[in-house]
Amino acid sequence: MKSLQVLLCLSIAAPAAIAQQGATTLAALTQRADVVAQVRALAVDVHHPERCRAVLRPLATLKGTPVSQVFELTEPPGRACGRALFGLLPGRSYVAFLARDAHGGLTLVGGGARALVALEPGLLQHVHALTTAGADALACAISGLDSASARVRDDAAFSLPFVAGLTGASSAQRIRIDAALRDRLNRGERTALPLLQSATRMRLQQSAPFVVDAFLHAKNRSLEPLLCRAAASIDPQSAGIAVTNEWLELAGAEDGATATDRLLALLEELPPNAARAGLLAAMQSSDRKQRIRAGVAWLRKGLAPQELRASVRGDEFATCELCVTDAPTFRSIRPSQKRR
Amino acid sequence: MGKISTLVLVGVGLAFTACSKGGGSSGGASTPGGVVSLLIDTLGVVGHSPADDAVQIDVDAEITVEFDGVIAEECLAEPETWLRPAGSTTSVDGEFSTFNGGRSIRFRPAASLQAETDYTFQLSPLTCDDDGRLLEEDYSFTFRTFDSTPPNVTTATISPNATDIPQNVTVDVTFDEAIGEDSVAPETIYLRDVFGTTYATQTTVSGSKVTIDPDVLLPGDRAFVLVALGGNSGVEDRAGNPLQSSWSLSFRTTGDGIKPSMTSGWPHSVGNASPRIQPLLTFSDSMDPASVESASVQFRDEFSNVVTYGIATSPDQMSVRLVPTSPLITGRTYTINVVDGAGAVTDLSGNTLSSSGLIQFKVGTDDTDPAVQYASLQDGETRVSPNAVPTLTFDGSLEAARISDATVSLTDPAGERVAATVTAENSNARIRIEPLNDLPVGKTYTVRIAGGPDGIRDLAGNYMAADLVRTFTTSNDDSLPSMLITPINGSTAISRDSTISVVAHQPLDATTVGPSTVYLQDSIGNVLEGSVQLSRSNRVIRFIPNSLLQNGETYTFTLIGGKTGVREASGNWLGADQQSVFRISQSTDTAPPILDVSLNDTGKARRTGRVMPPFGFELTAEFYDPDTFNQDPASLELELSGPASIDADTIFAGATVTETTFAYRVPEDRTLPAGTYTLNGRLRDLSGNEIAAIATTFEVAEPSFETLPFDRTQVVWARFDLDRDGNGRADFVDDLIRLGLNEASDQSAINARMIATVRDGILARVHRLYERKINGGRRGVDSVPIRLSHRQPLGVPFMQISCGGFDPEGAAGRTFGDQTSGTLGRAFYDYRNEIVNDNNTGVNPGVGVFPSELWLFETDIHLRVYPSFVTTFARAFLPLAPDLGGTPFGSDPVDGTISDPSFQYATATSAERARYNVVYLAADQWATAIGTILAHEIGHSLGLVAPGRTTAELHGDESLHNEFAGVTDIMGAAVGYDGLVSLNYRFRDLNLAYLRHRMLLK
Question: Which of A34, B3, B25, B292 has the fewest beta carbons closer than 10 A?
Answer without folding.
Answer: B25
